[in-house]
């Protein structure tokens, strides 16, 4: 159980970035402290941390609300994230990967292969695949060993739909292509081919942004179609 403000903020951050706590949702301290089983003092400190990170908005007499981001905000975050994570690949390749980092990346590829080996997407596999993806990207960021890259990438991930916790878990071929990127990126890094690793990572993150945009556009079109059908029925 989380007890410190850091542990509580980590827990809430993960829930926000994964979409479990949705944009626009109000976080009331008393019900939240009861549901988490934590005292209100570290909870207040955790909420302040997330507000400083830009994930929450605080309004006097109204409390905390999860920040909403426009599609333009999300795509802009993907654009910056693609360039920064590509830079991280270049830095990591030039430094050379430690044996521990090589092992983490290799294990992530194996775990992804295992999940996708069925040839179909199981909703129960989304959580494990998401965790694998987070570990893969985090390992590369850490291998870059540049705190500015780390800090700025984290800011991009604080735009929830642009984080590496979010997946459009619908199309097997899309996820397979994305995971094949993981394999190629890991190989390029192991060979210290920074230029290729940078290109692959930039395209990998950019592609994820385009998949999300297409999914959101389709959802909006479906809502408009339902609205138009309802209007016709009323007429």
Biggest sheet strand order reads: 1-3-2
Task: Estimate what percentage of residues fall within beta strands.
Answer: under 5%
What is the total domain count?
2
What is the terminal-to-terminal distance? Answer: 56 Å
pLDDT under 50 segments (min length 5)? Answer: 223-235
* Total number of strands: 3
* CATH homology superfamily name of the largest domain: GntR ligand-binding domain-like
CATH C-level of the largest domain: Mainly Alpha
| Average pLDDT taken over every residue | 88
- What string, H for helix and E for strand, traces the elements in order? HEHHEEHHHHHH
Largest sheet: 3 strands, antiparallel
Instruction: Determine the structural class based on helices, strands and strand pairing.
Output: mainly alpha
Categorize the overall geometry.
Answer: globular
The helicity comes to over 70%
Please give the count of helices.
9
CATH architectural type of the largest domain: Up-down Bundle
Query: Cα-atom Rg, whole angstroms?
Result: 20 Å
CATH topology of the largest domain: Four Helix Bundle (Hemerythrin (Met), subunit A)
